[in-house]
Amino acid sequence: MLFITRTNVQDGQARPRRRVGCLGGCLIFFAVYFICSAIIGWIMGDAFSSDKVELKDKTVYRLELKGALVEQAQEANPFAEIMRSMPYNSYSQQDLVGLDEILSNIRLAKNDDKVLGIWLDGAQLSMAPASAKAIRDALLDFKQSGKWIIASAKRYGQTNYYLASVADRICLDPTGSVDWKGLSAQKMYFTRLMEKIGVEMQIIKVGTFKSAVEPYFRTSMSDADRLQTKQYLDGIWAEYKQAVAASRQLPVDQLDALADRYMALQSAQANLQAGLVDTIIYTQDMDSLLRVYTGTKDYHMLTTAKMAKVKRIESKAKDKIAVLYLQGTITDEDGDGIVGTEVVKTLKKIRKDKAVKALVLRVNSPGGSADASEQIWHAVQNIKADSIPVVVSMGDYAASGGYYISCGADYIFAEPTTITGSIGIFGTIPSVAKLRNKIGLDIDGVNTNKHASLETNMIYHGMDASERDLMQTMVERGYDLFTSRCAEGRHVEQSYIQSIGEGRVWLGDKGKEIGIVDELGNIDDAIAKAVEMAGVDSYKLTYYPEKKDPIEELIKSLDKTTEEERLIMKIRSFASKPRIMALMPEVKIQ
């Protein structure tokens, strides 16, 4: 915090006193430094330049695979480079790269003769399998133009290698390797930790496979969670192997054998001999190879950020197809993900725009608040009531609450490796009875009615049988509503949804088999379907939500949290108050 506030008592009056700590002084210094640097950059016209970039002959699109992938690119932060150059810089957040921007750039590179090829530079972009497949498919489509793709990296992360395997030539640094090892899913369990501090998480849930709350009352995976996790890991790994096998012309069983050798610990030469890469070359010497591919030393290079500034031909059509990005955890009124109140406002705005002829929801969410999910579902139904077709494009996740807000659409697309389903809900009520006894805290009071102090009792004393019955009834009512929404949207019996529900997670390809997904495809396929359903000949795309102001994002970035702090915040979020959630189990896939 910037200020530490204390209270002094003088002359019988309490007076607040503020003291600026060392951290506060440093932040003020950095703020002044930053503002001065920004003003200079502005005057020079460099940092704040938003001019369109001209695409020149003999251009190479340099797609840098680093940072963290998000669904929608934000306005470029003109302060980022200045912040990185500051002394004792703490601007360490990963660069955020928009999937929409990358896909748009690849399409442009394919269709413009001024672009000769694509250089996949590096291989440490943080992304989930479904997003990686979307980029990979776009690169495969790019190759249909006859243009080349080359990839280079010091070390290939596994998902990044899956993406880069489409390249005509894969280059590896002499000191590098390919992290080809297979997939692993890990979960962290807090039960013993909470026992040590005297906190018991009281769980009310519906669904055998609804394992999001298992970390708070188990110390290991349940059989049901182990089964569903193994199944979707096997599905993702099969996609990786089959895709790489096709591109690299390697047998699938050989790729499994290479994974068992843990190729990340093998030499660059071993990776070359195994057929995972084509050329060993220092990354700093890639210019010589690019000269060969372009046929000139005077080629031009454009990064993703620069390519995004190349002018596109804008449609003059009056009819609109609205595309609304919904990414992150679903919350009621605040948060950085899908904020229910804000999404409802946006949907109302879209509904009022008479030029909008169809809506595409791009959903990438593991779920969250059950109530916020219901509010978003209702707002979507209001749009459909005005005869505006709604099509969903699922990203990496559209599970639990993410599926709740999707199920009412007219048509649903998913990637084969999209994680979806998880139809189920749960409630969490922390009990600090043991902690209270440990520290000697007593609580007493009076009530006018039997359950007047229900919430306090559940937290400070633990649920009794009648309170648990009340909570169980509420959760089951929520599950009944959730499954009824799914049944209505998918035009099936509620009993069928309940049979495939139970909180179970499915991959997109299996979701199509069981009917919770209509078709496998990407966001472009979803937009094409929306256009077809709207029956329009010409249209323009309008995107929501509006891109965030880079200055506001910079201010947020100054508030850093460590991994430990995020862990504590996660425990606190589950242990703060009773909540009804539609959230998929959280696992770390590596």
List keywords for this structure.
2-enoyl-CoA Hydratase, Chain A, domain 1, disordered N terminus, 3 domains, eight-stranded mixed sheet, about 600 residues
How is this fold's topology laid out?
Elements: E1 3-10, E2 13-20, H1 22-44, E3 59-70, H2 80-85, E4 96-98, H3 99-111, E5 115-126, H4 129-143, E6 148-156, H5 158-164, E7 169-178, E8 185-186, H6 191-197, E9 200-205, H7 223-248, H8 252-260, H9 268-273, E10 279-280, H10 286-294, E11 300-303, H11 304-307, E12 320-327, E13 330-331, E14 338-339, H12 340-352, E15 356-365, E16 367-369, H13 370-385, E17 390-399, H14 401-404, E18 411-414, E19 419-421, E20 426-431, H15 433-439, H16 454-460, H17 465-490, H18 494-500, E21 505-507, H19 508-514, E22 519-520, H20 523-534, E23 540-544, H21 550-557, H22 563-575, E24 579-583, E25 588-589
Parallel strand pairs: 3-4, 3-5, 3-11, 5-6, 6-7, 7-10, 12-15, 12-23, 13-14, 15-17, 17-18, 17-19, 18-22
Antiparallel strand pairs: 1-2, 8-25, 9-20, 16-24, 19-21, 20-24
Helix pairs in contact: 3-4, 4-5, 12-13, 17-18
